Amino acid sequence: MNARIRDYARRIAELERAGNFAEIYRSLVHHEMPWEHRKALEVGLYRTLADPELASLTVRTGRMISAETRQRRYDGTIIFFDELAEFGPDSQRGHAAIRRLNQIHHAFPISDAGFSYTLACLAVTTVEFMDRYGWRKLLRAEIDGICRHYSRTARLMNVHGLPATFDEQASLVARIETTMGFLPDARTVGLASLDMVINWYPRPARRLLRWAFPAFIPDGVKPVFAMDTPRGPEPFFAALCKVRRLIVPLLPQRSHPTLMRRQPHITAFPANYTIDQIGT
User: Fold this and answer.
1) Distance from the first to the final alpha carbon of the chain
2) Where are the domains of the chain?
3) DSSP class of 219
4) What is the pTM of this model?
5) 28-41 pLDDT tens trace
């Protein structure tokens, strides 16, 4: 363990003893592993589309019909994630974000079970992806920070079916996904979502990304999207991860947060947005 990781682990242990899991989560996703977190969310948001309730609602409301609508919906989601991570669900801005989320979702007949699956899915996918593809393994306190973040967000959204630990959240997700089968609405929305993500990248890379993306989707939901596992991407990305694990520990720690909403493909809302603009 080099000095950078040792110093960081010591700081996280102090935050854990103080019960400050919001700061643990913020440090992880905005300073330690922002790239891994961003990619984990891309996979996690795709995974949530396996829920029949969400997939049919998305198709029925036409929110994925045009590229502009898809991008606006995604950008709004990322801004909410960023607000809650940067300021914490219990902050004034966190409360404002959750109040706005509840206003948006109030217009749609989404069950408590649907919300619980979605939030558990995001937490579990974030842990699994970051632990597998990150430049280092997650600390136990970081895993707790991720799961507690989503559990607290759920409670503030008046969602009552989401437990607080990784094992319980992973069990909830697995129990629901074992009942899933092919869903035409999920495939329709999934293909539209994949087109959006791939179009963020230069044209020469898009074919490679379309081929590789299914390798990151958990096996349990692949039948929902009629998705096959391609051969080749896993060894390729495993090799890249090994290289990153050698290089990143040698780099200085980030002094400023890397915010998802400042990525170049997040374009639907102005930089000086107000939270009430999001979701319109």
Assistant:
1) 47
2) 3-248
3) G
4) 0.94
5) 999 999 999 999 99
